[in-house]
Every structure is written in structure tokens, then in C-alpha cells.
């Protein structure tokens, strides 16, 4: 055999070890390591990566790959020891965790399938398109610790003092430096005494002292308006959450209603949950 041919064959052999596996060779069943003969598969590594917090997901691929493989090797070695001493309590906990994972997987799929463009449009129409426009209020307040202080501020404003300046000088609330301005809001976001006072006011009015859990308020109403319905894109995340929640709730209700459930709890003291002695420990 010519020398050149001999070394060409050796070079090809070395390259075959150095080249990465083809994508078609990378399946979930691909064994990436063994620990005392127990396999760690690529599928297990991918599954673990998917459960990691976001800050780990952004690590370089090689760092994450090696870190995940090391973790699974450590877990497998320790689990092999643990399997030799599994207690009744361990069995119960593992079964609960298994059921919780499977139930969560079903509900995750249910939630993801619930979000469609048609569903979003229907949810938007039901929640916003046909709804009566809500009224928004633009107001400011001066928050004070005592009723007497509030009465004094109200009297000063009635006598010609500037509301904004009074708020900057005397309000104890976080909006004080801004002249007490609270911007635009719906009454539903305010505590009831505050909202009730505003509901009876007209633009330009300054209320007498109003007591809430936060203290005493002198309130000025600037204006009111009918709020326009938000655009679908502005509330997309909210609507998607609503669709997911409704789908999950409906799935749970339907599945349980169709299941044969037999409760054997008559005469059982609920405090039995504290009794770990049932495991024979």
C-alpha cells in the first residue's frame, strides 16, 4: 500500500471522530452519558433546559450544555443511592409530583390552544366593543393628617389661595410635589369615600375635608370625560390571560364532572394531615 494512501485512510479515520454528529443523529433517545450503566439522554437534557429560569437560558450554549450534563450526572448518581432507601413517604411524594406534572402539562396545552385570533376578537368585542364607555376623572388632592389641618387648607383655598401651591407646601401624599395632581382615573381605583366625594362634584369644585384610611383630603376636580375603548393590541396580553384562565377552568370543571369520584372521608379528622406517623417512620 502506498504511504500516501495509508495516511489518507488514517486522516479520514481521525476526522470521523472530530466531526460533529449530523442533526438526524440527534434524537431524544440519544445517550449523552451513563452513570453506573444508567443512561442520560439528550431528551432529558433538553427537558431540563426548558425548566430553567430565564437567566440561565441565556448562557452560552457550551456552558449550558456542560452545566446541564454535570447536573444530571450528579442527580443520577445521588438518585441511585436514594432508590435503595425509598420510604412510603417518598413514594407518596413522588406520586403526587408525577400527577401534578401530568396535570400541569394538560392544562398548559389547554391554555396555549385557547388563544386564537378569532377568540381574541370575540373576547375583545364582549369586553369592550359593546360595553358602555366608562367615565374618567382628572383630579388633584391635598392629603393632611388631621381634620383641622384640612379645614384650614380648604378655608385658605376658598379665600383665594392657589390649590397647586397649597398642595406643594402642605400635602403629605406622594403627589404633593406635583401639586397634588392625580391624572386621569376611574372612580373604581379610588377608596370609596374619595370616589363618593368626586361623584358629587362638578369640574372646578374643591371638596371639604374627606376622610379615608390614608388621612384627610381636600379634593379638586378638574374635569371628566368618557373613556374610549382601548385598541385590541393594547389589551392583547390581558385578553390572552382571560382566554387561558377560562379554558383552564372549563377543562378542570369538565374533566372532574365526567370522572367517577368517590370520597371516603366520613368520620376522618382533618388534623390527620399532621400525622406523619402513618408512614411508619
Summarize the structure in short:
This protein is of the alpha+beta class and 281 residues long.
Please describe what this structure looks like.
This protein folds into three domains: 3-83, no CATH class; 94-131; 135-226, Chitinase A, domain 3, CATH 3.10.50.40. It contains ten helices and six strands. It has helices spanning 3-18, 42-50, 54-57, 61-82, 88-114, 117-129, 147-158, 163-170, 192-199, 236-258; strands at residues 31-35, 38-41, 135-144, 181-186, 210-212, 215-226. α6 packs across α10. 11% of the residues are buried.
The CATH topology of the largest domain comes to Chitinase A, domain 3
User: In the CATH classification, which architecture of the largest domain applies?
Assistant: Roll
Mean pLDDT equals 90
Overall domain count: 3
The H/E string reads HEEHHHHHEHHEHEEH
Describe the strand arrangement of the main beta sheet, using strand numbers: 4-3-6-5
Topology:
Layout: H1 3-18, E1 31-35, E2 38-41, H2 42-50, H3 54-57, H4 61-82, H5 88-114, H6 117-129, E3 135-144, H7 147-158, H8 163-170, E4 181-186, H9 192-199, E5 210-212, E6 215-226, H10 236-258
Notable characteristics:
10 helices; 14% strand; Chitinase A, domain 3; 281 residues; alpha+beta; disordered N terminus
